[in-house]
């Protein structure tokens, strides 16, 4: 099941984001030193930009999809519970987000991927655009047409 996140789930989603993020060894030290990097903006939930994937009664992952400009959407956050990694939850979230963006008239969806998540986005059909600096190093801006 795929649905909008609700404000009462903000802490649950931040906790999920923390668990998921800490599985990436390359970012662990930075995230432990800067726990505020895990914060999920409440505006994402109230603006109906945060969506969750459910597995039974449990949140298995979430995605934040932002309308950046005419025809362009961006995946701001995409996190899956570690126990569900590799089970298709991330791909499901991307597929649903692409449908939402396309229905809203988007031409493309972009994501900023870490080196560790680059392969995931490539498997989902995204293409690399450029390397860019981020607070914990370098990331890759990627794009997929709707």
Strand-helix topology:
Layout: E1 2-4, H1 10-21, H2 25-33, H3 42-46, E2 50-55, E3 58-69, E4 72-80, H4 89-103, E5 108-113, H5 115-123, E6 127-134, E7 137-145
Parallel strand pairs: 4-5
Antiparallel strand pairs: 1-2, 2-3, 3-4, 5-7, 6-7
Give a structural overview:
The protein is an alpha+beta fold. The protein has helices spanning 10-21, 25-33, 42-46, 89-103, 115-123, and strands at 2-4, 50-55, 58-69, 72-80, 108-113, 127-134, 137-145. The longest helix has 15 residues, at 89-103.
- Main beta-sheet annotation: 7 strands, mixed
Name of the CATH class: Alpha Beta
Number of helices: 5
- Poorly predicted spans: none
Q: Strands of the largest sheet, in order across it? A: 1-2-3-4-5-7-6
The rounded distance between the terminal residues' Cα atoms is 22 Å
What is this structure, in a nutshell?
The chain is an alpha+beta fold and 146 residues long. 34% of the residues lie in helices and 36% in strands.
């Amino acid at each position: 099941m795929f649905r909008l996140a609700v404000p009462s789930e903000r802490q649950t989603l931040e906790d999920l984001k923390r668990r998921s993020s800490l599985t990436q060894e390359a970012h662990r030290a930075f995230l432990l030193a800067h726990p505020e990097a895990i914060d999920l903006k409440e505006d994402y939930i109230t603006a109906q930009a945060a969506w969750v994937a459910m597995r039974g009664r449990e949140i298995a992952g979430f995605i934040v999809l932002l309308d950046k400009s005419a025809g362009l959407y961006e995946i701001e956050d995409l996190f899956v519970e570690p126990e569900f990694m590799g089970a298709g939850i991330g791909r499901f979230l991307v597929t649903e987000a692409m449908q939402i963006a396309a229905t809203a008239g988007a031409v493309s969806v972009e994501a900023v991927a870490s080196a560790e998540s680059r392969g995931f986005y490539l498997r989902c059909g995204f293409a690399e655009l450029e390397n860019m600096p981020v607070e914990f190093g370098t990331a890759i801006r990627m794009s997929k047409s709707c």
